[in-house]
Amino acid sequence: MRITLQRPATGRTWTVTLKPAPFRPSRAASVGTSRLLDGDIAYVQVPGFGPGEATAVLTAIAQMHQSNPIRGVILDLRGNGGGDPQEDAALLGAFVHGKAWSYNCTASGACTPNYVDDATPLLHLPLVVLTDRDCASACDAFSRAVKDLHLGILIGTRTSGIVAGPATGYILDDGSELILPPEHQLSADHEIINDIGVAPDYYLPMTAQDLSAGHDPDIAKALTLLTRQPAGAHFATPLHTDRLTHVQVSDPTSPKRPAASLSRISEFDTSLPYIAFKPSAAEGLQ
């Protein structure tokens, strides 16, 4: 297979040849890139939530901390296809204890809380999570928990919105398997994530020009936010409100709502960060 590529920043065009080969993904837990960024900020790429992933992420952070005390953490979940919810619980436990991070609910409305893993030592560090449309399933759920529990800031684009609930396999008479979720999952704030996704606090899509120039706007924004924080401080988390008044909203990642002039919107319908408008005098306070 031959593919022609173009680099927008320079206009260079070239052709490469690809040869098909079997792909055998590893089941071993491993982080992607991890490195210490300017300002003593730990950056860890998390490609999935497979077994042992939380331990691998926290080990990478601990190793960076040994060489130099870190001031904040960036978890890059872009392209993270999900995995084991227990890994969500374990990694969230590094930022909060004693909280339900999601709920599994039956059709009748009975819900069972899923708690973070309090056995994970707390990091006591500010957190930024990078997301995109390929952040799915357990990645959706993790991102929403960070937002609902006010653990950090989300930067990037809306997540996939593919988190129906824990699935169970049923073997059929012909030997095939039907996989269905007997329960649906809700976020810590009892919100539906499936088919909606999680809007970032800062909407910063990666463009072809960014990729071509080797510039990552999400990491750049994360560094700006984290390096403003005094050592050991935590973020003032975004103010989410359902009373935004007379705002022109345009969120191209929203599957539900086009640009429109709205008088009331719920926070998951917009990715406008840190903005709260006082209600008009006619509305008053309720």
Low-confidence stretches: 239-286
At CATH level 3, the topology of the largest domain is 2-enoyl-CoA Hydratase, Chain A, domain 1
Total beta-strand segments: 15
Q: Reading side by side through the largest sheet, how are the strands ordered?
A: 3-4-5-8-9-13
Domain tally: 2
Radius of gyration: 21 Å
Order of helices and strands: EEEEHEHEEEHEEEEEHHEE
Q: What's the CATH class of the largest domain, please?
A: Alpha Beta
Oligomer type: single chain
Fold blueprint:
Blueprint: E1 2-7, E2 12-17, E3 34-37, E4 41-45, H1 53-67, E5 72-76, H2 85-92, E6 100-105, E7 111-115, E8 127-131, H3 138-148, E9 152-156, E10 168-171, E11 177-180, E12 184-187, E13 202-203, H4 208-213, H5 217-227, E14 247-249, E15 260-262
Parallel strand pairs: 4-5, 5-8, 8-9, 9-13
Antiparallel strand pairs: 1-2, 3-4, 6-7, 6-12, 10-11, 14-15
Helix pairs in contact: 1-2, 2-3
Short description:
The chain is of the alpha/beta class and 286 residues long.
What does this protein look like?
- The protein is an alpha/beta fold and 286 residues long.
- It has two domains: 2-15 and 29-227, 2-enoyl-CoA Hydratase, Chain A, domain 1, CATH 3.90.226.10; 239-286, no CATH class.
- 18% of the residues lie in helices and 23% in strands.
- The chain has helices at 53-67, 85-92, 138-148, 208-213, 217-227; strands at 2-7, 12-17, 34-37, 41-45, 72-76, 100-105, 111-115, 127-131, 152-156, 168-171, 177-180, 184-187, 202-203, 247-249, 260-262.
- The strands form five sheets. Strands 3-4-5-8-9-13 form a six-stranded mixed β-sheet, with helices on both faces. Strands 7-6-12 form a three-stranded antiparallel β-sheet.
- It is globular, with a radius of gyration of 21 Å.
- The model is unreliable at 239-286 (pLDDT under 50).
